[in-house]
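Need residues for this backbone.
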């Protein structure tokens, strides 16, 4: 039997006695049960084990809140003119770090040493820069002030050959050129890491199911076949941050360099307006993290936090859905409501237990057995495009 290379005091956790004291990163990494259960069970992690892996304890959530509070306090020490802070809410599951090394071949990005999910600042910069490029390309009806005209002088010594002028995006994000050239340029913006504020008690386990492994994995000399729809599916699990989680983005601008390079971007905080437009474009059309091409990582601005502009609270509306259908997901232990083509965000944890209490034992058992229940009247709230299930209508 393989033995996990961890200190002796962690062996009881590895052996399945308890995983509650460990962080999510440890439960998903060093303390993953496959280290002692054998490699043949690598794709057979029981549902109960996944619940232990994804659970967020009170300690985890308190640590998450403390880190976010500390980051906000650090940002508040900066002059308001050089800080842009945006708050967003996830309208879809968020995942990142799938390419990280992991025995399941689908990793996840955790912030060391806390072991909590995070979005690296480099990833934020890459997405926002791509959003700026798309707006500057003229492919969208409103560029929101972005353009790709090189008009800012490159800061070089007098005896050097003048380098190509900088565009607005290159001043803010930087320029990377080919090896051997000397016109590299570091942008004036610094993007901070983002720690999601997860409001529920667990991460989510999502599943992707490729059906064409017989075509992609078999080599021609081994007699590979053409792709067809009768291939054997291969469910692959990966971790995500649930929708409804909150993200706070901080961007620090080096105003001294910006005034020297592009003084027009400093006037009336024009750089903030440009960056705000790029973020909104990224939230709606690009997404953050991995698997954005299939909808993961989509967000919506919840409010603009203090330190950048006047705060604008999100509009929250309460509505009653009559004749809705409740849908129960036994794998993820959650319930959603559907009316027409609209679905709510999943309801889980204490709120789900409260819903079952309102339904009563008979209807709860019917919902769990048939996976659906309805028609039924439910109460929901709306924050922009995000619809939350509160419970049964009074």
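Answer:
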């Amino acid at each position: 039997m393989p033995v996990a290379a961890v200190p002796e005091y962690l062996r009881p956790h590895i052996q399945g006695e308890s995983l509650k004291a460990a962080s999510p990163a440890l439960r998903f990494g060093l303390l993953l049960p496959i280290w002692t259960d054998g490699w043949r069970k690598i794709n057979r992690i029981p549902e109960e084990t996944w619940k232990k892996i994804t659970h967020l304890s009170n300690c985890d959530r308190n640590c998450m809140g403390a880190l976010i509070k500390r980051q906000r306090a650090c940002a508040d020490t900066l002059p308001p003119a050089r800080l842009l802070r945006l708050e967003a809410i996830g309208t879809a599951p968020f995942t990142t770090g799938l390419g990280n090394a992991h025995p399941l071949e689908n990793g996840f990005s955790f912030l060391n040493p806390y072991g909590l999910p995070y979005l690296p600042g480099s990833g934020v910069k890459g997405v926002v820069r791509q959003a700026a490029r798309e707006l500057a390309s003229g492919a969208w009806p409103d560029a929101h002030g972005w353009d790709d005209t090189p008009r800012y002088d490159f800061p070089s010594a007098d005896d050097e050959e003048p380098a190509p002028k900088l565009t607005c995006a290159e001043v803010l994000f930087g320029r990377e050129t080919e090896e051997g050239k000397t016109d590299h340029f570091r942008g004036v913006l610094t993007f901070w890491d983002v720690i999601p504020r997860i409001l529920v008690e667990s991460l989510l386990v999502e599943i992707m199911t490729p059906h064409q492994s017989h075509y992609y994995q078999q080599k021609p000399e081994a007699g590979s076949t053409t792709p067809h729809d009768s291939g054997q599916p291969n469910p692959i699990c990966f971790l995500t941050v649930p929708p409804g989680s909150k993200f706070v983005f901080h961007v620090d601008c080096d105003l001294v360099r910006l005034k020297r390079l592009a003084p027009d971007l400093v006037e009336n905080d024009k750089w903030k307006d440009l960056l705000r437009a790029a973020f909104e474009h990224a939230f709606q059309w690009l997404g953050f993290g991995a698997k954005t091409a299939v909808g993961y990582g989509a967000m919506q601005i919840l409010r603009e936090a203090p330190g950048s502009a006047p705060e604008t609270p999100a509009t929250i509306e309460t509505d009653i859905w009559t004749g809705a259908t409740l849908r129960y997901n036994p794998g993820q232990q959650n319930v959603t409501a559907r009316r027409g083509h609209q679905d709510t965000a999943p309801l889980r944890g204490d709120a789900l237990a409260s819903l079952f209490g309102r339904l009563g034992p008979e209807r709860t058992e019917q919902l769990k057995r048939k996976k659906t229940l309805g028609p039924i009247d439910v109460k929901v709230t709306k924050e922009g495009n995000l619809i939350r299930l509160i419970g049964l209508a009074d």
